[in-house]
Design brief:
It is built from four helices and three strands. With 78 residues, it is an alpha+beta fold. It has one domain: YefM-like domain (YefM-like fold). The protein has a three-stranded mixed sheet. A hairpin with a 2-residue loop joins β2 and β3. It is elongated. The model has no long low-confidence stretch (mean pLDDT 88). It comes from Duganella rivi. This is Type II toxin-antitoxin system prevent-host-death family antitoxin. Belongs to the phD/YefM antitoxin family. InterPro entries: YefM-like_sf (IPR036165).
Length: 78
């Protein structure tokens, strides 16, 4: 994360925008206090795959959760 003053941000706006497009966050400070944070637009961020699609690809468990836990508990593992 890069931190710049308002004056630096005004002078270097093109370079700061390029940094943001590359994925970096830029914080703008005034009198030592953060007043703004520039981040990439949500549409520019990489979308994660759908969790619902991932769950749909997983095989169904053939036995109930209780039976599964009992089987684990009763094996020589414990």
């Amino acid at each position: 994360m890069k931190t710049v003053t308002i004056a630096e941000a005004q002078e270097q706006l093109d370079r700061l925008i390029a940094l943001v497009e590359a994925g970096e966050e830029v914080t703008i400070i005034k009198d030592g206090v953060a007043v703004a944070c520039v981040v990439a637009s949500a549409s520019r961020l990489q979308r994660l795959p759908s969790l619902a699609e991932f769950r749909a690809q997983q095989p169904w468990q053939s036995e109930s959760a209780g039976d599964f836990i009992r089987k684990l508990r009763d094996t020589d593992r414990y």
